[in-house]
Amino acid sequence: MGVHFQQRVLDNGLTVIAERDDEAHSAAAGYFVKTGARDETPELMGVSHFLEHMMFKGTDDLSAEQVNQAFDDLGARNNAYTSHEMTCFYAHVLPEKLLDSVDLLGRMMRPALRTEDFDTEKGVILEEIAMYKDNPFWVLYESVSAAHFRDHPMGHRVLGTPETIQAMQPDAMAAYFRHRYSADNSVVALAGRLDFDACCDAIEARCKAWERTDAMRDASRPAVGADNLTLHDEKVTSGYLLLVADGPDAADDRRYAATLLAQILGASDNSRLHWALIEEGLAEEAMAAYEPHDGTGEFFVYASGDPTRLGEIQTVIEREIQGLAASVTEDDLERLRNKVATGVTVGSERPADRMQRLGRLWTTLGEYRPLEDELTRINSVTLDDLRSTFEAFPLRPRTLGTLTPSR
User: Fold this and answer.
1) 297-305 and 285-292 as β-strands: parallel, antiparallel, unpaired?
2) Angle between the 330-348 and 255-266 helix axes, to the nearest 10 degrees?
């Protein structure tokens, strides 16, 4: 039978989309809200992630324990996450439990936002921020990202800062929730073995009171790039280096070439940085990645090693970046095409992964692209595509940060 795409827009503007697979042995549902750290004011930095926590604290008629117990009773694998661009609440279940799951998720999406829960969860989030301060990569990433995006909210910290979380008030969170968690700023994505019409009816019954708010986002490409950053920390013993540079946005077809370029430069094995840094014993870690976003995109290059050799590591990274486009061969390209296509295809065999791909793509671009089209686009990338993409996005201007032990 294959996979069939279906879509319905409810009267209040809430969009429901699905990839129905009658041969699947499970089903998945996710409520995606187009809101994240980039949609926050500086004063409310961290509110999207804070709200993610509050969703699990219960509704006006369900306690936190009852919400958790209900997911357990369904045998669901459920969770949530917040990024710079979206917040998602999801469940992966047996097909016969899907209707109950979409209803429970819909109930959960209208939390009580009790002041006592707010105060308790504020402490939990402050502990989470403190925990990430012990992660050298995370410390460096947040500092470099904030500098790279200058005053643009793409540089906001998803968790917020101790100062913004301490100062946050329940009424400000509630106002943000009412505006951003609206019907027309949300999408429900489904995948696996399911009855689409029955799911839509259940979602409409649960969510028909959700209002439209015309929530918007400025998706224009921000000005990026900053001077080098040098951080020191007495708790670290290694040296860490991270550079961030401009890349194609999520709607740009050059993102396929950018994905392959990042893999050639810094995949976990058999990449330029792996052979030049790790196999040579110069670095303990080395990787490159590309992340497309709404209106912008980023290349990352990260490495760690002996702090006294960080200069050598940087020199090698510069050499590999400069020679990247000219060094790529047809064999490199074919190997990467196969590797990426395999990863995409393997992930597509799980309804939970299909649901995530479907929801993220629609939330970012407002459109559906079959997996087969994505694979065709990956396989059609040529050496000229790689070289022209690198010419347009040569990993400059960039922001470079280092973190080393305190002297």
Assistant:
1) antiparallel
2) 110
